[in-house]
Amino acid sequence: MVFRQIYEEGLAQMSYFLGCPATGEALVVDPRRDVDVYLELAESLGLRIAAVAETHIHADYLSGARELAAQTGATLYLSDEGDENWKYRGLEGLPHVLVRDGDEFRVGNIRVRVLHTPGHTPEHITFLVADGAVTEEPLLALTGDFLFVGDVGRPDLLEEAAGMRGTAEPGARAMFRSLRRFLALPDHLQIWPGHGAGSACGKALGALPATTLGYERRHAWWAEYLERGDEEGFVRALLQGQPEAPTYFKEMKRMNRDGMPLLGGVPHPGRLTRFQFQKVLAEGAVLVDTRDKFAFAGGHLPGSFNIPAGKNFSTWAGWLLPYDRPLVLLAEPGRVEALTRALVRIGLDQVAGYIPGLEGYAEGELEQVPQVSAEEAKRMWEAGALVLDVRGRDEYLAGHIPGALNIHAGRVVAHLDRLPKDRPILVHCLGGDRSSTAISALLAHGFRNVYNLTGGIKAWTEHGFPVEKGEALVEA
Amino acid sequence: MVFRQIYEEGLAQMSYFLGCPATGEALVVDPRRDVDVYLELAESLGLRIAAVAETHIHADYLSGARELAAQTGATLYLSDEGDENWKYRGLEGLPHVLVRDGDEFRVGNIRVRVLHTPGHTPEHITFLVADGAVTEEPLLALTGDFLFVGDVGRPDLLEEAAGMRGTAEPGARAMFRSLRRFLALPDHLQIWPGHGAGSACGKALGALPATTLGYERRHAWWAEYLERGDEEGFVRALLQGQPEAPTYFKEMKRMNRDGMPLLGGVPHPGRLTRFQFQKVLAEGAVLVDTRDKFAFAGGHLPGSFNIPAGKNFSTWAGWLLPYDRPLVLLAEPGRVEALTRALVRIGLDQVAGYIPGLEGYAEGELEQVPQVSAEEAKRMWEAGALVLDVRGRDEYLAGHIPGALNIHAGRVVAHLDRLPKDRPILVHCLGGDRSSTAISALLAHGFRNVYNLTGGIKAWTEHGFPVEKGEALVEA
């Protein structure tokens, strides 16, 4: 049996490619939307993708399952668990099998048993995989967002991101039961999860690619609760300290359940001439300025969003960019493909083109972001400027500038009404990246009196300026 | 703890990168010689390579341990087990620690315990790795060529490749004892080996990146022998059916023990003008023609070796190319870097340059390889041509053209005296790739009456022509 983990760093997302050399068939589990990576792998291994399976309806990325099935003719294996809210729709025309707990399917000699493991989501399933060429006993489990290395999937995602009130606690209880049942499996079972460190789908994900049930049973944070059957303690611990869930998650859930546009390949946006660029802007396109915070501060086009090209590009794009308007990238030509993929992975397909730089714009056409040092910031703070701390809630609680308002950088746009237009706003994060993104959103929404604390709270504390802990003006 | 497996497809070789984000230190285990992959990983993760360790003195590739230590200042951790033949030499000037069974070392929070696991080689050690941030209990073992997925390292490599008579059986017995001892470890221990499917360091390596001790204990081919304590049966089974060991292995062993030239970076051979090319050829350089078998057959420069660019390039280069002469690559410019790396990985450092094609050569300057169909081959065979089967011994025994001589393609040069110059030699393999390589070696050594059975024994059997099984004129 061939087995490959495919790691997508931006969303810390893992998909899997399993092949049976004896029959030439392959199975892909939890594919991302730019599916060429699987097609190329199949080609290089001389295998045909015959099946595509999904552990659950994902929230943090747009699934490539339908895309891959449409491009290859593979059969989809999707969960039939959960209530009506969690039933896949729009599968007409795609060969598919809806599976439930206890079902089995084979891809060549690869035997897959379906286990219903609700908790992260109600319809979540785990695949127990056996290499039939060796034995019928499973050697590994593809656990999706049920079991991670050192953690479990968060059950509060939809309550948090989509306002589905009252789903977090029942989810946590379901997770407890799923774990209890799963622990009956043997210690030597390999666990290959759907996410690694950095994903917003859990809070303490480990950086290892895989783990074993025996190790998790002994050393995961949840092990002690399961050991003593302490469901209440487990639920409390699980729901505590989960990171902010990006608002685009809600949209992903809906599209992954109901269907999304098929791409037929990765889009290649073209370079726009100045006239083309002006035309698409006039038609409502949003300019995504992917340069770093310094370049953005030094001069940018009014109305553009600063989302620097980097590891978290997908996530920040998901937090801030509109799904109903075309996008234009300001990016080095060599980066356009990777950035376009990062957007397509979360369903931001409308990339109208790119421009490589701002040469040719006159000084007066560009806007700057005033940068202030820690000393200047202290003077502004003393003089009554509003301090807007755009870090996560946990970071804020651990220590913030006294009186600072906390709105996560990704949520600034949703809370504009809480911000004053009549006094200076001093924006900061830890080191100045997220604040640049938040400031770009504020500027795009007409705020003018906005300042960036260069160096973030790091610089502030290094100067020994006052910091307080715990709650204050919190709006995470 | 950060953990990455780095897979090098050409030699099916796996190295490991382990990092401790808390202290910013990293450990690399069993690095390959083009070490930039580790430097880039460290850079991207913001870590410093503080330690480099090796499971054993490798035979199939030139170690990058000293290279990486020299470039980073990292401390080397090397085995002090085994007799005088297996002691590392020439380590002066490189910070190093020689370790024995039971020793421990730490890299940040990563705790590494050394286990002596002889069998593949006498000094072989395995690293038990614990993530000290979680627990002191090991979560995984880096088993090198001791334990593979579904297999164990072969103990006969040096007897086979280097003529060290009488080492295979004692090695097999040592392997049995190492396994017995290792099986005392818990089922949930992850096993991350030094090689995957396709390596010549074992015979039945699985295609999965990792396994667990519990799964191997139950399902590996050797499990039953250990279960019933059947050492004799184990030794017999282990020594049976091992693949041919490339002759360059002997050279690798020596260099990996005694030291090799440090590179300081990956070489970038330049493109040679026609005059430069002629000059290096006149000075004794060997032309390595990396085009496919068809292009080579259609026209090649006399004296060149046909080793097509592809997955097994390193291995065939190791089988056939001289270590004491400069090499020139005939390759597409876009492939030169990958090919150079493949050569450097096995210590073929003397790449004098490349030429992109044979344009400009007159018809008469190029040599062809006569291709014969299965029907023509049958007529030649009936008329008394020598059939030279250049496949592996096991393939030959499973079915060959009656009367065929079997010399593995990589060993043809070592057995030229067994080949007639006075009658036609009909060379074949399974499908025509290895035979093209073997023919190029024969032509380079002055043989002229050589024919390639296009389509190999595949075509022969498809025509229903006679095949016999078992021993005959075997010289594997």
Automatic annotation (TrEMBL), chains A, B:
Matches recorded under SUPFAM superfamilies: Metallo-hydrolase/oxidoreductase, Rhodanese/Cell cycle control phosphatase
GO biological process, one term: hydrogen sulfide metabolic process
Domain Rhodanese: 281-370, 383-469
InterPro entries given in the database record: Metallo-B-lactamas, Mito_Persulfide_Diox, POD-like_MBL-fold, Rhodanese-like_dom, Rhodanese-like_dom_sf, RibonucZ/Hydroxyglut_hydro, Thiosulphate_STrfase_CS
Protein's name in the database: Zn-dependent hydrolase
Superkingdom, natural source: Bacteria
PROSITE patterns to which the protein is assigned, alphabetical: RHODANESE_1, RHODANESE_3
Keyword field: Hydrolase, Metal-binding
Molecular-function GO terms, alphabetical: hydrolase activity; metal ion binding; sulfur dioxygenase activity; thiosulfate-cyanide sulfurtransferase activity
